[in-house]
């Protein structure tokens, strides 16, 4: 009687499998939930190394992304006198000694001021598999290193740089920038909405958003303007590195299926809302895990970082570019003169109430905070979403 009952059941099961249904699960009934062969793959954390100023190394899986690196220093007096300023290649190499440059896929810089861009050419030479994503001014500056430089250029660059390794995201002929929040900035012929760009050889994609750069000291705006033609030489002094169109970025680290496992927002300069903000449709698709915000000159814009955090609703915020980079790296770290750092931190922490969904590690120690005013050299581990 028992056999007569079981045979039809077995036959139905076999037919069901043959018709495309899934075979029985191989999950061990005694295994803890979320484990076994049917469990989703565990997501590795995001590793972040703060280099100082607004330079961050983002590492996930086999991919490394670098933001706005700055190792070359010059005093306020020297900058004011417009003295020559070459990249300090020794400082660059020392500062990146522990960075896996073989995994470096991209450098991201939202404007071309010297404190974000002067050391980029040497880093590109050190990491030949990397590409820099910047603005049109940055591309025109680095055209000085192109093997096929503009007619009339007579000098020979010591470290030639292929044009394919410098991407201007705001080039109107191939614009990738999202101008939804600032349509007046949109160049003629460029689309209003931005588009993702895949970083070659990686599981990373980025999207740029129109932003702004505030005045640095009262009404004084250092390095304002753009460079609209290809250059024959790199700028000789700090003042020659003009900013161009300032951009902000989303940086997505993807799994093998192309789904974001971490989303990072990177800000090159503080802004007045809604400039530099991310449209809600993009945030509805995937929230921001980490926002890298810029402290410098935040007192020259309205209600920052409160507005940026309200827009992004990030799990964590790391704030950089607060230290005085006119000092030698061997000197004790001090804030930018006249910067109200305490007010910035107070606003950031008030805008990020509650505990994180999983502990953040700062130099190996678990933290209950969601905001970190980052010290140069700090290593941070951002946990995956729970």
- Please report the total strand number as a whole number: 17
Tally of individual helices:
9
SSE pattern? HEEEHHEHHEHEEEEEEHEHEHEEEE
Strand order of the largest sheet: 6-5-4-3-2-1-17-14-15
Mean pLDDT: 89
Identify the overall geometry.
globular
Q: Approximately what portion of the residues adopt beta-strand conformation? A: 15-25%
The radius of gyration over CA amounts to 24 Å
Measured as a percent range, the helix fraction is 10-25%
Low-pLDDT segments, ≥5 res? 1-26
Structure class: alpha/beta
The N- to C-terminal Cα distance equals 50 Å
What kind of sheet is the major sheet?
Answer: 9 strands, mixed
Please give a structural write-up.
With 386 residues, the protein is α/β, with parallel strands linked by helices. The protein has helices at 2-18, 76-80, 89-95, 114-117, 120-126, 136-142, 280-285, 306-312, 341-350, and strands at 46-52, 55-60, 63-67, 104-108, 131-134, 166-168, 177-178, 197-198, 204-210, 247-254, 260-267, 290-294, 316-320, 360-362, 365-367, 371-373, 379-382. The strands form 2 sheets. The chain has a 9-stranded mixed beta sheet, covered by helices on one side. A hairpin with a 2-residue loop joins β1 (46-52) and β2. The longest helix has 17 residues, at 2-18. The chain is globular, with a radius of gyration of 24 Å. It starts with a helix and ends with a strand. Residues 1-26 have low confidence and may be disordered.
């Amino acid at each position: 009687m028992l056999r007569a009952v079981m045979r039809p059941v077995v036959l139905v099961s076999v037919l069901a499998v043959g018709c495309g249904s899934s075979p029985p699960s191989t999950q061990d009934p005694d295994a803890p939930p979320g484990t076994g062969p049917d469990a989703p793959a565990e997501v590795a954390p995001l590793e972040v190394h703060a280099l100082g100023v607004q330079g961050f190394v983002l590492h996930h899986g086999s991919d490394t992304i670098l933001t706005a690196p700055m190792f070359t220093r010059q005093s306020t007096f020297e900058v004011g006198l417009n003295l020559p300023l070459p990249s300090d290649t020794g400082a660059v190499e020392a500062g990146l000694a522990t960075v896996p440059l073989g995994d470096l896929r991209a450098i991201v810089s939202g404007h071309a001021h010297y404190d974000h861009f002067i050391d980029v050419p040497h880093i590109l030479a050190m990491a030949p598999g990397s590409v820099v994503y910047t603005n049109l001014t940055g591309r025109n500056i680095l055209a000085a290193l192109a093997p096929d430089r503009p007619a009339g250029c007579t000098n020979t660059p010591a470290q030639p740089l292929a044009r394919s390794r410098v991407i201007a995201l705001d080039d109107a002929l191939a614009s990738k920038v999202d101008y939804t929040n600032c349509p007046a900035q949109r160049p003629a012929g460029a689309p209003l909405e931005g588009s993702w760009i895949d970083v070659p050889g990686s599981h990373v994609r980025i999207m740029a958003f129109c932003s702004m750069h505030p005045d640095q000291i009262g009404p004084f705006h250092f390095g304002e303007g753009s460079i609209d033609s290809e250059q024959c030489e790199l700028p000789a002094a700090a003042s020659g590195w003009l900013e161009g169109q300032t951009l902000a970025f989303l940086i997505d680290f993807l799994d093998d299926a192309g789904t974001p496992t971490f989303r990072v927002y990177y800000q090159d300069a503080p802004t007045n809302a809604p400039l530099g903000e991310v449209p809600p449709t993009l945030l509805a698709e995937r929230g921001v895990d980490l926002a890298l915000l810029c402290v410098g000159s935040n007192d020259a814009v309205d209600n920052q970082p409160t507005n940026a955090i309200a827009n992004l609703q990030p799990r964590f915020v790391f704030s950089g570019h607060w230290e005085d980079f006119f000092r030698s790296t061997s000197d004790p770290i001090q804030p930018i003169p006249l910067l109200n750092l305490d007010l910035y931190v107070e606003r950031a922490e008030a805008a990020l109430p509650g505990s994180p969904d999983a502990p953040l590690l700062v130099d190996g120690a678990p933290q209950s905070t969601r905001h970190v005013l980052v010290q140069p050299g700090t290593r941070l581990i951002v946990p995956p979403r729970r």
